Amino acid sequence: MDLALIVVAIAGPAWIPIVIHPGWRQTVRRSGRLMLALGLFTASESVQLVFLFFVNSGLLTLDYSLKFAAVGIPCSVFALITSVIGGVRNSVGISISSLCGILAWLFLITLH
Fold this sequence. Notes:
This protein is an all-alpha fold.
């Protein structure tokens, strides 16, 4: 459960500006690249949360982390690349969250 809280905290830099500042939402909507980066990052974090739920439930062991990471890491990498291409000023939170998401995946891989 503690790892799930860390995964949710990793999403903070990407989602907090969108939730708090209404003008930021329109910026993301107007920029297809930022929307794509946010979607890819959210997909990666969702896969991480599903994996951690299965591990905490005892349905899977940490040995399956590499199979889940095979989906999650490319999503995070593409989110990072797309957010940097989309504009540095508007994508700092998504870039930070994507980088931390990659590090979290690598941590989960090394745990098994």
